[in-house]
Amino acid sequence: MSFDALKSDLPEYAKDLKLNLSSLARETELDDQKKWGVFLACAHAVGEPRTLAAIRAEADAYLSAEAANAAKAASAIMGMNNVYYRFLHLSKNKEYGSLPAKLRMNAIANPGVDKADFELWSLAVSAINGCGLCIDSHEIELRKHGLTTAQIQTAVRIAATVNAVAHVVAAES
To answer: Where in the sequence numbering do the catalytic residues fall?
Structure first.
């Protein structure tokens, strides 16, 4: 499925999502690697097959194999970290936070792409997964790398739209 077919297949009640996909694909606040890495990481995070296939097909034109792999790695590692760190954040027993995580997270230290790109993709996935602790942590790192509020917001706008599109596609199938 192509990106244009994904947009065309959205029902009339999801017209805003279709328009948002179009405008976000043309967004210039982020360079193409950052932008399409966010799209791909978020599509992997939501996991809806048709949405993922359409975004993967479009992202292939903008991402190297290494960048695509890193975007998928951001989704994978955040799938684990967002659950673990959300638990630490929400648990009333703060003793858990004093224990070592004992979870492998090598992808964060060595993502294979610019660290800022990986952090942005991780933040977007964390927004989908609802982990405030991870959102705050990645936002701090992104600021250290010089990303602006508008750039970070753009990534979250992409995350919100991809998430909503995937839910509509799943509901309609």
So the answer is: 131, 134
